[in-house]
Amino acid sequence: FNIVVLPGDGVGPEVALAAQRVLNSIGDIYGHRFEFTEHLIGGAAIDATGEALPEDTKAACLAADAVLLGAVGGPKWDGSPVRPEQGLLAIRKAMGLYANLRPLQVSPVLAHRSPLKKEIVEGVDLIVFRELTSGVYFGEKTRTATSASDLCVYTVEEIERIARAAFQAAQQRRGKVTSVDKANVMETSRLWREVVTRIHAEEYPQITLEHALVDSMAMHLIRKPRDYDVILTENMFGDILSDEISVLGGSIGLLPSASLGADGPGLFEPIHGSAPDIAGQDLANPVGMVLSAAMMLRHSFDLEDEANSIEAAVAAVLASGAVTADLGGALGTVEATRAIVDAIR
Amino acid sequence: FNIVVLPGDGVGPEVALAAQRVLNSIGDIYGHRFEFTEHLIGGAAIDATGEALPEDTKAACLAADAVLLGAVGGPKWDGSPVRPEQGLLAIRKAMGLYANLRPLQVSPVLAHRSPLKKEIVEGVDLIVFRELTSGVYFGEKTRTATSASDLCVYTVEEIERIARAAFQAAQQRRGKVTSVDKANVMETSRLWREVVTRIHAEEYPQITLEHALVDSMAMHLIRKPRDYDVILTENMFGDILSDEISVLGGSIGLLPSASLGADGPGLFEPIHGSAPDIAGQDLANPVGMVLSAAMMLRHSFDLEDEANSIEAAVAAVLASGAVTADLGGALGTVEATRAIVDAIR
Ligand SMILES: CC(C)[C@H](C(=O)O)[C@@H](O)C(=O)O
Ligand SMILES: CC(C)[C@H](C(=O)O)[C@@H](O)C(=O)O
């Protein structure tokens, strides 16, 4: 399997290394060979080439079997004409990664670390399907001396494909989809609601579908997060809501994501950012990145047992307390990764 | 004082009545005369006139000293060509209400009802300054057979005036403003950040200013809500974030808001919606609307003592447990209002 690794900025390189170590041990045990090729993205790429997504990085990603990404961005590039995040947005678009999957399960051993009461977060098991290649992220932008604008566009086709992805996931889960929009204000949201309602009626009538407004959803996700199974939403709302719920499990450092297209390679990255304040100090939690690698094994390579093996090892390690400082532990990134590798063996 | 009352839909009429009762008792004690004139808005107006904001309602609001609004909307008008919310958006625009103030103080007696841990929410005291007459709410919308769009526009002037309002409020408070945007993606956010930074440097250098991205802010508001004093943000982000934090205090039914323009009357409404499921059953919590009336006394009529009197009465009543069902109490809207009136006397 040819895997392109984009370490990126801040803690990105440290967690990307952790994922490679874990994958190598999976390879040894199950007899697979993972070939890793590193390429530049984000601030690191800007420093080296002036561009946030150099051509050869893009070409390598498109030719790979899958892509692992650490993190991009940091205050270092604040005044820069090219921003690191442009590299992330450009690779999502270039690879056609329209479906961003962000699963959240609150581990019983970590529920006490949540800012929410234990009885509210215990047993939460949901997944966000965020549309990733359209909306206000990719619409036309203008700037004059006295004003600025951003255009949010959605096409029927863009909504259909992410809706289908969410309904299909719900079939394998508890059979419920909550579609989030702002239909009382936005035209794109009204189209969103119509299309989701139609796809549901025509293709997935056995799934339970509910619609929620983004503002009340921001409330419900804190009051009763256990009520949700699959959450389906557009790019910007997905960005905000998935970060909001990332606190439920006690640390954002735990959470993985998968970004998938119609075909072609997927991209796998932790939810957390580049965390420049702790970069290079062996402090980053490797779990979000390692679980992203597990999602890669499942979604890109169909290696279900191998993915389960990583997830079980992570659960065991979390239960044992062999964790990094964000979870109140004493281990560094390298040692926490070693604990996961040991648990796999 | 000529006050236009817009009861609106759902529980709106019940809470609007509660506010009038409380204001009448304040009038008796302090020797003021509040004249209330009711007008139609939202679904009630659509049913009666076909329009969400009839001309005479608009004219009455513009001529009033202040406006009290209950709530608008409900599933009854879901398929309707005119939506109730259009009335709310239209009156905000017509009155030029660019500054929406949403204060949140977590009452120590109610902290245990929060979904968050007591030690996290106790002592929270913040106020959101949400821009209310621009952004994606009021930009051009398009619709074709295969797509839809919403335009988000901000002018320098629109950002300047809400920024000044937030900085001025911070001067009377703990001296800190957190400006929220999505500057790594949106052009309007980059303009927002520039303008806020400039107004700060030129006019309010003694205030502490920090910038936060909306996604990480959605996280921080749950992890460390006590860190915030004044939160300054654009229309849509303000909608989402203020609903998110509304759960911190234990019930959204507690929270007031004030919408103010450059001059002319302000509009005062609770944060909660029309709650059609409990409408007409004497179940609604009157506190959010009553505290909105207190904000009216303070901001529109400069009656600081009278506003304090209402706020002290509400605090006493909450402490005594004379509350509605959303707070675990046994009182109806009418009785809970009477308890507040009794406490004022
Ligand atoms: C870095 C930023 C552009 C990005 C986004 O907003 O999509 C990030 O917040 C994310 O969620 O992956
Ligand atoms: C009803 C709706 C249009 C409104 C808004 O989004 O502004 C409401 O959610 C609010 O926050 O006052």
Protein described:
Two copies of one chain form a homodimer. Chain A has 345 residues and is of the alpha/beta class. The first copy, chain A, folds into two domains: 1-116 and 252-345, Isopropylmalate Dehydrogenase; 125-247, Rossmann fold (3-Layer(aba) Sandwich). Chain A is built from twelve helices and twelve strands. Chain A has helices spanning 12-30, 42-49, 55-63, 84-94, 118-121, 156-172, 187-203, 214-223, 235-246, 287-299, 304-320, 333-344; strands at 2-8, 35-38, 66-71, 99-105, 125-131, 141-143, 147-155, 176-181, 208-213, 230-233, 256-260, 266-270. The longest helix of chain A is centred in the N-terminal third of the chain and has 19 residues, at 12-30. In chain A, 58% of the residues are buried. Chains A and B meet through strand 6, strand 7, helix 7, helix 8 and helix 9 of A and strand 6, strand 7, helix 7, helix 8 and helix 9 of B. Strand 7 (147-155) of chain A pairs antiparallel with strand 7 of chain B, so a sheet runs across the interface. Bound molecules: 3-isopropylmalic acid (2 copies). Chains A, B: NAD(+) binds at residues 273-285. Chains A, B: GO terms for molecular function: 3-isopropylmalate dehydrogenase activity. Chains A, B: It catalyses: (2R,3S)-3-isopropylmalate + NAD(+) = 4-methyl-2-oxopentanoate + CO2 + NADH. Chains A, B: Belongs to the isocitrate and isopropylmalate dehydrogenases family. LeuB type 1 subfamily.
